[in-house]
Amino acid sequence: MDFISHGDNTDQIIKTVDNVPLPKPAECKKVDFAFIPHNDQFELDFHRPYIDEVSFVENGEVYKRLPEVLDVWYDAGSMPFSSVNYPFSFDEAGQKDFVKNLTVDFVAESLDQTRGWFYYMLFMSVALFDKAPFKNVIVSGMVLAEDGKKMSKSLGNYAELMPVVEEFGADSLRYFLLSAPVTRAEEYAFSQKMLNEINNKFFNKISNVISFLEMYGITNLSINPSADFSNTNELDAWVEIKLNTLVKEVTENLDIYQIDRAAKPILDFVEELSTWYLRRCRDRFKDTEADALAVTKNLLIVLLNLSKVIAPFTPFMAEEIYLFVKNFAAIENIKESVHLENWPEVKDIADISVIEKMNQTRLVVEQGLALRNKANIKVRQPLAYISVPKGMMENIYQEIIKDELNVKDVVEEEDILLDTNITEELRVEGVVRDIIREIQSKRKDLNLVPTDKITLSIKVKEDISIFVDMIKSAVNAATIETVPSEETEIIVNKA
Asked: Which residues contact 304 (CB under 8 A, 6 or more apart)?
């Protein structure tokens, strides 16, 4: 190949005519170049057909590309052994050990790999080693857009990942996907509404439990999680069994790689922990120190085990819960991180009758609330009684029903019926309940903590003198002044 060189004159100023550089007298040289495969734009390209024109000689032999092409899926299929350079990096004993331990617990990929990676791994491992390379296969389906169509840039119907994570959190997205049928090769539509629901029913509920403990819980307790669960009443026994059932259900489903079935019970447990156990136990912090101690310990143990159970699904929330418990109490054998913990064990709890009894109790409560709503009577208005079918008494917790439905008694009749007759005494007590609610609202407006005592001046038409002690206990009042008045007025001051 010939070309022009400026020789030794490159350091001289090039003369110009009308500002156009003129070359210096040049000399011709001839240079040999090795052929480099290139496309029509002279870009380096090792693909066919350009690579077919390349050859070289080594030890008297001419080498060119073989025309035969092995299916590239064989590369992917050889992953179980080629990734560790088998057999070349193993001696004879090492090769035997490798083949013995070839089979992994599971592989995971999308549905289109059924005739791709899954098939070729299986084919090559069986052909070479007479054994399967995996025990289980997790196949993910297609995540569709909210409109039920395939996500597409041209349609503009897909959600950008980072804005979703920033708005709802990575844990919400993880839980949404892992609890969906998309983990078992089915299609599933993405839903921001569902992400919002997960935040409300899962993460916000957990935050409520933590906030409650921060405000009311007894700090610096020494706790042995495997021995310190305190069953001082039916609610404690119930939540312990519920926790144990959760661990059992999640464990069993993870063991058989049913990811969505393992994830779903977590949401239900958190809902019940917050809206039933915690709500029902609030007043126990006012009753006795022993009750407050029991509830604090139980909640901490529940949160500790819950953090371990949810760690594979929502790792960030799991760590937040774990570190809260670690800093709140002295927990025996606590680790630096939940992700260094052992998986919780399933306990052998023989008597689970408390679950059925609590289910029956909640059924009565649910129907009683529906009857109140039908009669347009608010829950703060006390009523005389609710009836339950004969034979049901021994299978319910009457005190819980009385408290939840704000009734004075539970009696036996033919069916679940609510006495909606409001006597004058019951009406006045309803007024007192409204007053208590208003006082609590004013306490909140004054930014008072639960231990802050207050003084009260209550102007009201009804005679509420017999309820003064009840009001004091409910709102932590030091003194109460009651003044007869046609108009109701409540004055709250910090004591």
From this structure: 225, 321, 322, 325, 331
Residue 179's SS3 state is coil
Q: Please state, in angstroms and as integers, the Cα–Cα distance from residue 106 to each residue in 109, 119, 128, 134, 257, following that order.
A: 10, 14, 20, 5, 9
Residues in Cβ contact with 252 at an 8 Å cutoff, skipping those fewer than 6 apart: none
SS3 5: strand
What tens digit of pLDDT does each residue of 280-338 get? Answer: 998 888 778 888 899 999 999 999 999 999 999 999 999 999 999 999 999 988 999 99
Q: In terms of pTM, does the model score above 0.70?
A: yes
Task: Answer yes or no: are the C-beta atoms of 412 and 389 closer than 8 Å.
Answer: yes
Taking the C-alpha atoms of residue 349 and residue 125, their distance in angstroms, rounded to an integer, is 44
**Which residues, at least 6 apart from 131, have a Cβ–Cβ distance to it below 8 Å?**
99, 102, 103, 125
C-beta separation of 203 from 211 below 8 A: no
Contact 24, 5 (CB under 8 A): no
Kindly tell me the sign of the dihedral angle through the C-alpha atoms of 421, 422, 423, 426: positive
User: Can you name the residues that pair with 150 across neighbouring β-strands?
Assistant: 144
pLDDT of residue 10: 46
Q: Tell me the β-bridge partners of 482.
A: 458
Alpha helices in 190-274 (DSSP H): 192-198, 204-216, 234-255, 259-272
| Cα distance between residue 267 and residue 203, in whole Å | 9
Per-residue burial over 297-323, b if 16 or more Cβ lie within 10 Å, else e, is bbbbbbbbbbbbbbbbbbbebbebbbe
Contact assessment for residue 464 and residue 482, using Cβ atoms and an 8 Å cutoff: yes
Q: With contact defined as beta carbons under 8 Å apart, do 439 and 475 qualify?
A: yes
